[in-house]
Amino acid sequence: KAGVTQTPRYLIKTRGQQVTLSCSPISGHRSVSWYQQTPGQGLQFLFEYFSETQRNKGNFPGRFSGRQFSNSRSEMNVSTLELGDSALYLCASRPITGVETQYFGPGTRLLVL
Amino acid sequence: GENVEQHPSTLSVQEGDSAVIKCTYSDSASNYFPWYKQELGKRPQLIIDIRSNVGEKKDQRIAVTLNKTAKHFSLHITETQPEDSAVYFCAASKAGTASKLTFGTGTRLQVTL
Q: Which regions in chain B score pLDDT beneath 70?
């Protein structure tokens, strides 16, 4: 099976703009989670989507949002970008409830200038 | 919320030696503990995981031990090889929120010849 894919891989934006990142999970996986990775804060959970519904949410401001489509693909949106949003955004997928193992995508590296 | 502490932050060993990385967690409800390896510029890859109903798990040169009473778990790598050089992250999650992983701060392992 193909692994988790994310697009775009690299992105440069300016403060105040918004950005949308995309994640395609492994075929058959219905849960998609998003994480932010920075040198200072490490890996932090943003949110999880399962069957098009947000199931869990981390401690991030409302500028961070997401959605999931019927084919399990997920998008993450960040509005009104701040310099501190510069990070590697990783998504991870897992098959079904009760199976904990998550597989990560390669990430989207976002630079906010 | 859950807090995961990881030590050491850096670890240098000679090829063939063993490496041990330790993590402690704060939430006694946590029941799933994966370890991820992240090479420079690459995605985190699951190398081993353990559930709270098991005290130890081995996979070739890698083993994980869990002490629920002390709320700590450890990664053991034996016969280290240069390709083991990477950043290793421990993580924890609770039942019902398996995707909501709380990560440790990472250990940079360097295996020298």
A: none
